[in-house]
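Good morning,

Both structures are done.
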Amino acid sequence: MAMEEIARVYADALFGAAKDLGKLDSIHEQLGAFADALSENREMQLFFFSPYFSSAEKRDGLAKAIDGAEPELLNFLELLTEKHRMPVLFRIRRQFDALWAKENKRLGVTVTSAVELNPEVAERIGSEIEKQTGNTVELQRRVDPDILGGLVVQVGNMVLDTSIRNRLEKLRKSVAQAA
């Protein structure tokens, strides 16, 4: 089974349990906090990813690391430890975040422009997407001089590209085909 597939199975299981228990938000938050701490701390990674420490040692480490966390999250992380799946945690977190966003009707939208975008324009784009999708948009703005002009709008995992570079590329292709 591929890493992505393993991550999906674990994330689905944790999400289902969290939802049934009415603890979606707290487990989402605590999973994120633990994953962040783990990604920033090399010693912690070595400890949790290493085959040299026993499951019991790792369980004790977990209990200390996430003192006060939801018991279901602790059990989940213990399971990952026992199955030597802790390195998949970051992918599990990404999958869980995506499920959580969908559940809460939140849509990540990134607007990339060649120059700094007027905040009102960005807001207009955001509210237009909210109107069309019925979701709450979480808007991020990026500047990328390489796109020359126009906008690249990423909605979830869909990209709407209205940049000049994109039009030039299409033009170049049609010229190449005509030649």
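Second structure follows.
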Amino acid sequence: MQKTFITSNPHFGHSNIIEYAQRPFKDKYEMDKTIIDNWNKFLKKEYLVYVLGDISFYGKDKTNEIIKNLNGYKVLIMGNHDIRKSITYWKNVGFDEVSKHPILVEDKYLLSHEPRYELAGKGLYYNIHGHIHHLDINSDDKDIYFNVCVEKNNYKPWDFEVIKKRLEVRS
């Protein structure tokens, strides 16, 4: 069985995210280095990694340099900042697969950029998502959501098995 990891919202090259999401970095270069180093420390080249959006604010060349140096088979689910570019663009900068839409994994884990209240909130799926950075879902059914933004796991990707166990314990 292939080991799987999930992460979201690295915002490579985005200086303003440091203040907005209360990230503990002096600048975007320190932030980028930390996220890249953590990624490659925990992920091997043969691992599968889902990135749930908002990957990079750099241009094509710098984004390509970053993505090609990240370990793993990389699947991007485009976020609100990524949709400004095409699927072809994201494949050309190094993603193995790209989707504009949420992906259902193992028939019960809905991977999406933003929390998908209209689906997960009906109890159909667990919703693994990004977008809300350091915040948490505040609703009656919050136990079926799991925020994988980098701020929530010390700026490293989440092991999918850990996520599944935590979701099962909550519900």
